[in-house]
Amino acid sequence: MSVRARMLTLLKRFSADERGVYAISFVMLAGFLLGMASLGLDGARFVSERARLSDAMEQAALALTAEDNGEGAARNYSLAKDYFRAYMRREIDVFTPKVVVKRGSSANNDNLSYVEYRVSGQTLQESWFSSSLFPGFDKEVIVGDNGAARKYRSNIDVIFVTDFSGSMNSAFDGSTKLNELKRIVLQLSEELFSHKINNKVGFIPFNWGGKEGGYCDLPFVTNAPYPHDIFKFNLVYDLEAIVNIPATVAAIPRRVNDIRIPMDHVEGEGVCLKTSHSWKVPLTSSMSTIRQIQGMTADGATLVSSGVLLGVPYLAAGTASRKVMVIVSDGTDAPEDVMLTPNLINAGMCDKIRRVISTEQSVGKIAFIGIKYQPTVDWKRCVGEKNFYLPQNIKQLEDDLRRAVFEEVGHNILKD
């Protein structure tokens, strides 16, 4: 066979041989197939990450409406980034979010004011299949989204039940606990009144009880006659012996005056605000009225439950859609082994108070703020963990008082 014939025969065999044809096709299509796989896998993951980021920003927006720290507050950005990091576990970096605060009024006849927080942000993600050999995403990809929430401001009644024992005069970050408390209460009152929706504020000072006119005011139902000489401080245990705990809780929110002793018969200096220049300020929408607290002074010992029970009738009589009691103290009840307060809590005092200050629009709220001390009474069980605060400095006290008054979760709305 000639050379030419052999060549033709080999060419015919080669053209008829199908072995390896798919390998060649795969090599030719490999780049395209890998690119499609890369885009599919990474793309699906980025869609999932964007959905997670969207959830994070929706939750961040809700949290920001609850706190309502205002436009430009550093807390807005740190809180939003915390939510991003909690949800976005695979990010390379979290960029500083953008927070926009809007305020306005509803279009309905109720004309309720509202605050709205819109949060947008971006995270940097790493591609799993980035390569220069086939089509795909860049090595690093920015994933972004946004969220929004709005909270309508129904009108609110706030009662500050405040410890006016002598320890409130002690130093606190270059000032005193009492001065800072009064300053912050006035600041919050101005803000509440500025909303023009009939918000009201009340102020109930206490030490070992309170005072009403020229009489000692201890709001406990008794089961025995009350001796006039009990206010010698070493006889406070006699009060505990004659208080009817279940009847006292059952009486909430009625004002109780079973113990009615003229102030000039009170011998103990640590009780009934006898040596404290202070008095009750019922709910008011007048800034000049609430400014009375500027001239008040503190002295004496502490019995927190007496202040709480003194404040309930005033708050229960309010007419606002929301009612909040903020209890502020800087020390334990004295003497520490007096069990009046824990016995009242165990008997359901806090639950009863919440029921009587609840409205059709809102569950009544009680918050406890312990200034720079650890309470021996379980106030966290009384008010709930989210309403229990232990500030250690002025900034924390200001933040915690603000949250106690204003914190109310809104609802998510349509985002951009």
UniProtKB/TrEMBL annotation:
Question: Transmembrane helix among the record's keywords?
Answer: yes
Q: Where is the VWFA domain?
A: 157-416
Transmembrane stretches, start-end: 21-41
Q: Which UniProt keywords apply?
A: Membrane, Transmembrane, Transmembrane helix
Extract the SUPFAM superfamilies matched here. Answer: vWA-like
Is the Membrane keyword given for this protein?
yes
Q: What is this protein called?
A: VWFA domain-containing protein
